[in-house]
């Protein structure tokens, strides 16, 4: 009975806040506001992905005898001394019985191409540019290895090149780009929308609206209603932005999402997971924001709180980003287990690992922490509004009280 009353009261408060926000003229400006941050986030995400791509060496599987591979590898070492600061193709010797198609699908390490035929009749198959650095480096290695094996004046050998649309190396790089893009999108949306709770709460506290509402409904209902109203408003805004983005992709590209790097779980599942993880991230961080914001009494204190809270979000985003490229590593697992960074880490994992069951486990784990944080933050919220129980004061509030 008590829980039902709490739900009805939270619904009333949530409907009030949602209607007041969505029906205002400022909501249109709110929908246009994320345009520039999203563009900046996409630009920085692309730069980060490019830096990572440049830091990783393309791997070429070589089907050759042990002697020929050793000679080719020595030529590769010589080339790496000449072109310091640039990426030099990494070579790995493959089992002569392995097929070319199997090697192109190899993921550990992700192979970008296969070189076969030895030094006399080399043939390369891979997802590279016809006139790119990988082809030029392989030509140089083959010529150097052939001169070292035969006569110094031996003529250069021609290498037959067959280009493919994709390989394990190109797929891994594309999925890493999708993972970083998804994390950047989730981060921008969360930092943009969750911070609005601070300013809205302090406005109603300064206008004494909170006290009026607390006299009519339970304070916990006010807390839950405001949090879920802002979540609903945020999801409405995201729906508008997604529709605008889908229209832009349909107009400016041929094939829509087919031209974008496909996540490991597929586009339908990935697009379904994005709003789910955004909701979990918003509830986790938004509850923390609302609980902290309830302790502030002036706009200046809100501004003081905004900087460390924003920096904490940046740290969570950076922590989750360390696992991209190695989803089974300790850093990725630790980021997925830590509740506040878990949504960012799991949306990145969805782009790189096809398994879906970890997302169900992550959802249940995050829901547990949402309940715990909501309970703790609601207690702080109730204590701040009703001034019941031992008062919690921040260090600067204690200094102000002692000075007065």
3D architecture notes:
- The protein has 404 residues and is mostly helical.
- Helix content is 68%, strand content 5%.
- It contains 16 helices and 5 strands.
- The chain has helices spanning 2-22, 26-32, 35-55, 66-82, 100-104, 133-149, 168-193, 196-206, 209-214, 219-252, 267-293, 299-321, 330-337, 342-352, 357-386, 395-403, and strands at 59-62, 90-93, 111-116, 123-126, 160-163.
- It has a 5-stranded mixed beta sheet with strand order 2-1-3-4-5.
- The longest helix has 34 residues, at 219-252.
- The mean pLDDT is 75.
Which features does this protein show?
404 residues, mainly alpha, D-Maltodextrin-Binding Protein, domain 2, 2 domains, 16 helices, elongated
Reconstruct the topology from this structure:
Layout: H1 2-22, H2 26-32, H3 35-55, E1 59-62, H4 66-82, E2 90-93, H5 100-104, E3 111-116, E4 123-126, H6 133-149, E5 160-163, H7 168-193, H8 196-206, H9 209-214, H10 219-252, H11 267-293, H12 299-321, H13 330-337, H14 342-352, H15 357-386, H16 395-403
Parallel strand pairs: 1-2, 1-3, 4-5
Antiparallel strand pairs: 3-4
Helix pairs in contact: 1-10, 3-7, 4-6, 7-11, 7-12, 7-14, 8-11, 10-11, 10-15, 11-14, 11-15, 12-13, 12-14, 13-14, 14-15
User: How many helical stretches?
Assistant: 16
Main β-sheet: number of strands, strand sense, barrel status?
A: 5 strands, mixed
Helicity, as a percent range: 55-70%
Return residue spans where pLDDT drops below 50 for at least 5 consecutive residues.
none
- Tell me the span between the first and last alpha carbons: 46 Å
Q: Supply Rg.
A: 28 Å
Q: Which band does the percent of strand residues land in?
A: 5-15%
What is the general shape?
A: elongated
Q: What number of structural domains do the residues give?
A: 2
């Amino acid at each position: 009975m008590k829980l039902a009353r709490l739900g009805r009261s939270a619904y009333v408060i949530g409907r009030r806040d949602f209607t007041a926000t969505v029906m205002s003229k400022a909501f249109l400006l709110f929908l246009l506001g994320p345009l520039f941050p999203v563009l900046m986030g996409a630009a920085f995400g692309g730069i980060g992905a490019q830096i990572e791509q440049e830091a990783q060496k393309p791997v070429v599987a070589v089907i050759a005898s042990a002697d020929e591979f050793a000679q080719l590898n020595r030529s590769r070492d010589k080339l790496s001394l000449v072109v310091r600061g640039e990426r030099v193709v990494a070579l790995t010797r493959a089992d002569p019985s392995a097929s070319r198609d199997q090697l192109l699908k190899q993921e550990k390490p992700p192979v970008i191409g296969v070189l076969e035929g030895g030094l006399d009749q080399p043939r390369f198959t891979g997802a590279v540019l016809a006139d790119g650095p990988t082809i030029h480096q392989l030509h140089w290695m083959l010529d150097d290895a052939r001169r070292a094996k035969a006569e110094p004046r031996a003529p250069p050998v021609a290498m037959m090149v067959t280009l493919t649309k994709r390989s394990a190396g190109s797929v891994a790089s594309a999925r890493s780009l999708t993972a970083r893009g998804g994390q950047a999108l989730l981060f921008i949306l969360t930092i943009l929308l969750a911070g609005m709770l601070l300013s809205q709460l302090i406005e109603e506290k300064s206008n004494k609206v909170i006290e009026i509402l607390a006299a009519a409904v339970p304070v916990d209902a006010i807390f839950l209603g405001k949090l879920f109203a802002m979540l609903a408003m945020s999801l409405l805004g995201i729906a508008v932005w997604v529709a605008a983005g889908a229209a832009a992709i349909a107009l400016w590209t041929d094939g829509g999402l087919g031209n974008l790097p496909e996540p490991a779980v597929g586009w339908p599942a990935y697009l379904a997971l994005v709003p789910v993880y955004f909701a979990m991230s918003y509830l986790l961080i938004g509850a923390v924001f609302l609980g902290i914001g309830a302790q502030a009494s002036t706009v200046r204190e809100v501004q003081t709180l905004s900087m460390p809270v924003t920096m904490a979000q940046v740290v969570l985003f950076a922590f989750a980003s360390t696992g991209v490229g190695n989803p089974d590593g300790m850093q990725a697992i630790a980021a997925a287990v830590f509740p506040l960074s878990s949504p960012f880490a799991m949306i990145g994992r969805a782009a790189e690992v096809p398994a879906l069951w970890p997302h169900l486990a992550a959802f249940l784990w995050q829901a547990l922490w949402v309940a715990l944080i909501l309970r703790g933050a609601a207690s702080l919220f109730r204590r701040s509004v009703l001034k019941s129980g031992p008062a919690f004061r921040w260090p600067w509030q204690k200094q102000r009280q002692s000075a007065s």
